[in-house]
Write a structure and sequence with these properties.
- This protein is α+β, with helices and mostly antiparallel strands.
- It has 4 domains: 2-204, 2-Layer Sandwich (Heat Shock Protein 90); 237-377, Ribosomal Protein S5, domain 2 (2-Layer Sandwich), CATH 3.30.230.80; 403-498, 3-Layer(aba) Sandwich (Rossmann fold); 499-541 and 565-626, Heat shock protein 90, C-terminal domain (Four Helix Bundle (Hemerythrin (Met), subunit A), Up-down Bundle).
- 36% of the residues lie in helices and 20% in strands.
- The chain has 19 helices and 22 strands.
- The strands form 5 sheets. A 9-stranded mixed β-sheet has the order 1-6-5-4-7-3-2-8-9, with helices on one face. A 5-stranded mixed β-sheet has the order 10-11-14-12-13, with helices on both faces.
- The longest helix has 24 residues, at 345-368.
- It is elongated and about 115 Å long.
- The N and C termini lie far apart (110 Å).
- 33% of the residues are buried.
Length: 626
């Protein structure tokens, strides 16, 4: 028997581990199962190169609960340790400058290095255990060893009669951690952190039905046997080569990741790179809602098939955070508890790689089957538009596949759109004016008017459209966007010829006075325009600049203060309409009723007539029919 002190340069290593190094006590199981996996894979490597003259076999890791004895066992069949190796790897904690370490991380552990660098994974056991035992037998022909420590720097190390290769960790669970003696809790943790570990993990047994014998009669009762309950999938799809997988395999893996997600993903992107960093993974494009923030934290980050976090901010570009799937990389630097990402050159490289890979996949999908890509556009556009705004490298490539649909369900790239519209949509100043609607049904009358003039109208209805068109205008000379209800159509795309007004200047001034007496100035700006006599007498428009700045302020961006501005509209009155002449010819109550009726009709065209105003309009309309 030998006794001694664990070789660290500060004696309070265990309180340090319990308080500072780990943000969540539950990860002790992840660390211990990871160590068991490492020991097993190392043995596989040694047997593979002929350095270990033993049978590798089909090893597994077993997790057992002894609730009565208040113990948790983690057992592996890996390479094990000799007593000398226990002294080296367990007793001599790999600290360099522990005093400096303690000082640096006394308030936070968010900036520490990779756990393997410090050799602290095993010591996470003391977060939940009052005593820890190691019983281990090396693959080498040497006696087994039994190490015991009660959470102080004191330990004992004695021989043991264990004959089978491998290591058993026994945790004597502390009174404040008895939750880790519950089967459902341990099962939950194994499924969370170790669901895709590369070595089979046994956790109890389960019943499995035996096949029904061919000669069994109708009264045959199904027989069951106990089999090992393997809780993980050691060979998940992302660890395989894309050439070895079919679409069905990707769909099945999606179901494995998200068992409660009932819709199939639209498509997937398989990531696989080994230089200048190592990264594998599969990203899925699900059907997207119009909400930018709703679907984040669905991508899972793994390190060598060990779950780390579902917060991949920094690794995955922000706009792709709305996707689903898995990323696995041993080259992503984490802190000592594997819980936080660190700032590192590799992280940016990985982010850039993912951006490029997604861009290439989208371009390939667009090129290979444009019709199918167009069908999926509305389900993916929010991600792509967000990417254009937030990721310059993605924006550079987006012109090859980002689409701009019209109200008639025709899809154009920006280059195609410019070519298609240049002859009809260019105004007298040489600017190409792109008309769009943010609500196809609500702005239908304005769309119809534009189409009667031979103009195309795009559908741009995402919540970030104002930001997007601002960027497109900045980056494309002589290109401007105007929502179809921003003004009457002849003002939106001004040509050389102007329509003369039927009314003299004196009559126009008189008409303006009549209108101002009835139309409230608080919400409306009056605008008299000479338009085609067949155009609507009253049109309600919302100025592009003011509306756009307001929308941008509300979604983050734009000019400060615009988000709080009340909704303002222009009332455009067509001086060539018969109603304009009629208003000049009538007086009093009749004149006022005509103005209110015309204004309400204009509001209806904008979807603005609601509540009490709508009720009054309906009543007034029926009275006029009587």
């Amino acid at each position: 028997m030998s006794t001694g002190k664990i070789n660290v340069s500060v004696e309070n290593i265990f309180p340090l581990i319990k308080k500072f190094l780990y943000s969540d006590h539950e990860i002790f199981l992840r660390e211990l199962v990871s160590n068991a996996t490492d020991a097993t894979l190392k043995l596989k490597h040694l047997t593979g190169i002929g350095e270990a003259n033993v049978e590798y076999g089909t090893p597994q890791i077993e997790v057992k609960i002894d609730k009565e004895g208040k113990k948790l066992h983690i057992i592996d069949q890996g390479l094990g340790m000799t007593a000398e190796e226990v002294e080296k790897y367990i007793n001599q904690v790999a600290f360099s400058g522990a005093e400096e370490f303690l000082e640096k991380y006394k308030d936070s552990a968010k900036d520490a290095g990779i756990i393997g660098h410090f050799g602290l994974g095993f010591y996470s056991a003391f977060m939940v255990a009052e005593k820890v035992e190691i019983i281990t037998k090396s693959y080498k022909d040497e006696p087994a060893a039994h190490w015991t420590c009660d959470g102080s720097p004191e330990f004992t190390l004695v021989p043991h009669d264990k004959t089978e290769r491998g290591t058993e960790i026994i945790l004597h669970i502390a009174e404040d951690s008895t939750e880790f003696l519950e089967e459902h809790r341990i099962g939950e943790l194994l499924r969370k952190y170790n669901k895709f570990m590369p070595i089979p993990i046994k956790f109890g047994t389960r019943k499995e039905a035996l096949p029904k014998p061919e000669d069994a009669g109708d009264d045959y009762k199904t027989e069951y046997i106990d089999v090992d309950n393997i809780i993980n999938n050691p060979s998940p799809a992302w660890t395989k080569q894309p050439t070895d997988l079919k679409d069905e395999d990707y769909q099945n893996f999606y179901r494995e990741l998200y068992p409660m997600q009932f819709e199939d993903p639209l498509f997937h992107i398989h990531l696989n790179v080994d230089y200048p960093f190592n990264l594998t993974g599969i990203l899925y494009f699900p059907k997207m809602s119009q909400e930018v923030q709703m679907q984040k934290d669905k991508i899972q980050l793994y390190q060598n098939q060990v779950f780390v976090t579902d917060n991949v901010e920094g690794i995955v570009p922000e706009f792709l955070g709305m996707l689903r799937g898995v990323i696995d990389s041993p080259d992503i630097p984490l802190n000592v508890s594997r819980s936080y990402l660190q700032a590192d050159g590799n992280v940016k490289k990985i982010s850039n790689y993912i951006t490029r890979k997604v861009s290439d996949k989208l371009k390939a999908l667009f090129t290979e089957n444009r019709e199918d890509f167009e069908k999926k556009w509305n389900d993916i556009k929010i991600v792509l538009e967000y990417g254009m705004l937030t990721e310059p490298k993605f924006y550079e490539k987006a012109g090859d596949f980002v689409l701009y649909p019209t109200v008639n369900d025709t899809y154009y790239t920006l280059a195609e759109l410019k070519e298609k519209l240049k002859d009809t949509h260019t105004d007298k100043n040489g600017k190409l004016v792109v008309l769009y609607t943010s609500h196809k049904e609500q702005q239908h009358s304005y769309i119809a008017t534009a189409q009667e003039k031979g103009y195309q109208v795009l559908v741009m209805d995402s919540p970030i459209v104002s930001h997007l068109i601002q960027k497109l205008e900045t980056d494309n000379e002589n290109l401007t966007f105007a929502r179809v209800d921003a003004d009457h159509i002849d003002k939106l795309i001004q040509k050389e010829d102007t329509t003369p007004s039927k009314l003299s200047e004196e009559e126009q001034e008189k008409l303006k006075g009549i209108l101002e007496h009835v139309i409230p100035k608080a919400n409306y700006t009056l605008q008299l325009e000479a338009m085609d006599s067949t155009a609507a007498p009253f049109i309600l428009t919302q100025p592009e600049f003011m509306r756009r700045m307001k929308e941008m302020s509300q979604t983050g961006g734009g000019m400060m203060g615009f988000g709080n501005f009340p909704e303002m509209y222009n009332v455009v009155v067509n001086t060539n309409a018969d109603l304009a002449t009629r208003l000049l010819e009538t007086e009093g109550e009749t004149q006022e009723k005509l103005i209110k009726q015309a204004l309400d009709l204009a509001k209806i065209a904008q979807g603005l007539l609601k509540g009490e105003e709508l009720t009054a309009f309906v009543k007034r309309s029926f009275e006029q029919l009587a």
